[in-house]
Write a structure and sequence with these properties.
Keywords: Hydrolase, Signal. InterPro entries: SGNH_hydro, SGNH_hydro_sf. It comes from Gigaspora margarita. GO terms for molecular function: hydrolase activity. The chain is of the alpha/beta class. Helix content is about 50%, strand content about 15%. The protein has helices at about 5-30, 40-45, 65-70, 90-105, 120-125, 135-160, 175-185, 205, 210-215, 220-235; strands at about 35-40, 45-50, 55, 80, 110-120, 165, 190, 210, 215-220. Strands 4-1-5-6-7 form a five-stranded parallel β-sheet, sandwiched between helices. β6, α7 and β7 (about 190) form a beta-alpha-beta unit. α3 (about 65-70) packs across α10 and α4 (about 90-105) packs parallel to α6. It is globular and about 80 Å long. The model is unreliable at about 20-30 (pLDDT under 50).
Length: about 240
């Protein structure tokens, strides 16, 4: 027979072992969890209603909103934080978005579940060619920023419980290949937009403002299609 003292200690031990699991269950059932989107105008969203300049609205519904809608079918308490800003380069992301993202993740430890990034085209867009010193210097700077600052800091703050994904674009082949290489090596899921949008077929008109206003930003159908691609590559679509 167990003594009263032994029985009490045994019961207390079971309670202490059970309590963390109960707390985690309550957090998963009732607490908020987060999806953070960072990057440029693709992440922020841009709606075009007429010829440039001046006929555009931002922030607007972006692929992040579509992805959030799809994810929220499973993750009922998922909240979207959109930190992306139009025109931002990787330097801007570091100076104006990264600390905000990291501070949020640290102050809400374990509650960030998804992070997506679209960045890079504004780093190289002011170069006159994709085959000159300006372009390759900017590309090298982008590589450094992603490999040595942005991705390591995000992973350090987010820990093991975050799913990371990033997109390419579809008009600078060397930029797209560079981004795919960087993200693959850093174990990000990659939404390669070249798989759904191309200047060589009707998708450029169906999914962007190119044929209407000579602008490569995704239209409503494009935003929804890109969000769906992110959803697929994150491996969530079969879980709903």
């Amino acid at each position: 027979m167990l003594s009263e003292k032994t029985l009490f200690l045994f019961t207390l031990l079971l309670l202490l072992l059970y309590l963390p699991f109960r707390i985690n269950a309550q957090l998963n059932d009732t607490g908020k969890i987060y999806y953070i989107s960072i990057g440029d105008s693709f992440a922020e969203g841009l709606k075009i209603t007429g010829p440039s300049p001046g006929n555009c609205t931002f922030p607007a519904y972006s692929y992040a909103d579509t992805l959030h809608y799809l994810l929220s079918k499973k993750y009922k308490n998922l909240e979207l934080l959109k930190y992306g800003r139009g025109g931002h380069t990787s330097d801007d992301l570091i100076n104006k978005q990264l600390n905000k993202t990291i501070d949020f993740m640290k102050s809400n430890s374990g509650l960030t579940k998804f992070i997506t990034i679209t960045i890079g085209t504004n780093d190289v867009s002011k170069c006159n060619s994709t085959n000159n010193t300006c372009y390759y210097n900017k590309l090298d700077s982008l590589k450094y920023n992603l490999n040595n600052i942005i991705i390591p800091k995000l992973k350090e703050a987010g820990g093991e419980g975050v799913k990371y994904a990033a997109s390419t674009y579809f008009w600078y082949p060397s930029l797209e290949d560079t981004l795919v290489d960087i993200y693959n090596k850093n174990e990000f899921k990659v939404a390669d937009l070249r798989s759904i949008i191309s200047f060589s077929n009707s998708t450029i008109c169906n999914y962007t403002y190119w044929c209407e206003y000579h602008d490569v930003h995704p239209n409503t159908d494009g935003v929804n299609t890109i969000g769906g691609l992110f959803y697929k590559i994150l491996g969530e679509s079969f879980l709903v």
